[in-house]
Every structure is written in structure tokens, then in C-alpha cells.
Input
Amino acid sequence: RNIILTEVWKATQYWLGMGKPVTLDLDDAYHMLRHSNPAHEFWNNRQEGQQQTPLEQLRAIMPLLDCFTSPSQLLLEDWLGVAQRTYWWPNWAVGKRYENLKKEPHEGCIIGWGGSSSHWDTFWFTPVLEALKRVCDLRPQVRVRICGFDRRIYDMVPLPEGRKEHVPYVPPDRWPANIAQFDIGIAPLAEEYDQRRSWLKGIEYMLARVPWIGTEGWPYKELARWGTLVPNDLDAWVGALIDHIDHPRDPMPGYLAGLDRTLERRAPELAQALQRIINLKKTRTQQVQLRGAIYV
Output
């Protein structure tokens, strides 16, 4: 959303006019938002003093930029006919946040998830909620923990108090300590919108040494050997959860694989990628008109 701020627009125009490479990074499918997503109103309505909606502005500015980056290859494909160049920019985790994590002793088994309000549709359009209810009916030692500031998702879980728990939002540097308390992590995906998410949730579970189950699809396919991926089928979700409860997984292989997917490990190649982007040369020689001003 920050690209839509007036100040950012002005800066973008200035640097493009100076012939400097300007890039844009998107990690969300804003062009696919449902009305139930809180961000829908912002992206699809004109703001005060604007002649275009933010989504229309995004489409207008994209062809003028030198590079479009995203952690989702599907998002890159979506904008391929609009952006000049696209570059896959994975979401690497901040490894130092996952050092020295401790799991507090607790009874039973905690199935956990955490995220933003954009995941409301994720739970509404998948069988995960009913799967959690059935699993808790079958295994009395299980309870569900939902983390995040949007209590709508917690309220959707069809379980009584005591079998489900809500943990409020915490800053990113404290989030790994919350994940580490899960015994099983879940990463459901729904519809094409969710297929354009990054793989970060799976990597977070791996680094926190939490066995996890996710929906089959693009975001987690490269992590499949360190997690359990299932179709969005009620029996498949129930079966996978019960199997994880009855036969706990060894989280160490996933943890070691997660270490290789951190910013600290990937810093050299990220630096090389940044340098390639900086070295991009504009191929256009004609004048480019931007919102009433002409830059050459």
C-alpha cells in the first residue's frame, strides 16, 4: 500500500525522470481481493483528491518501472504483460529471531496458526475449521491456538472456550517465540488468492522446529519434504492432523533446511540480485509523461 502514498508517487516520478532504476515489490494479490478482505475497500475505491483507484494507479505505474519483484512466481506471471521486467524475490526468514527458542511445558497438544486479517477467506473457503472440530472430538488432549489481532478467525473456530485459545498480535521479533509453543502448525490455502502467497509460513514453522501441515499448491511445494501437504479435502486434513498427533514428527530435518532459507544465509545472493537491479538500463528513449510532468 505504501507505493500509493502521494509522497512516494512524487519520489517515483523524480527518480524515473533522473534516469534511475526504480523497482516495485508486491507480496499480495491485490487484484484478486474479495470484499471480505479488509484491504479491498482501499484498493478498489478512489481516495480523496485522486482520479484513479489505488489498483488503477498501480497498473498505470507498473509499465514505467524498471523491475517488478515478488516472492510469488504466480504474481510475477499475473503482471508479466504489464511490468517491463520481473524478478523472483523469495521471502527469506530472519534467522537470528529463531535462535534460542524455548517451548514452555504444557499438557496436551496445541495445533497453532497465526496471521493477518487477510486470511479470513482462507478459513472460510477450506475444510480446516471442520477438520479442527473433528480432531478435537476424536482427541480430547488437543486444543487450537489462533494468533493475531483479528479475532474473527478465532471466533470462526467451532470449539468452546478451553478447547481454543487466542493470542494477540505481537511484533515480528517476538513472533517466533509464539510459534515455538505449537506442537503442530497449520498452513491452509484457499482459492487463487492464497496460491499467490509466499512460502514464509512453512519456513517459520521449520525454523521454530514445529511439524506442520499445509495445503497443496505453489507456495509450499518446494518445502513438501519437510512438511505434510494435503488437498483441501476434509478427510485429508483430519487424517493428516490425527497422524501427526499420534505419530509426532522429528522437526530437525526441517529446522536444518530452514536455516538455509534465512536472510543471513542468502545475503550474498541477495546482494548480487540487488546489484543486477541497480545496473538495469532503461531501454526506452522516448519521453515519458507522468501525471502532468514530462521527464526525458
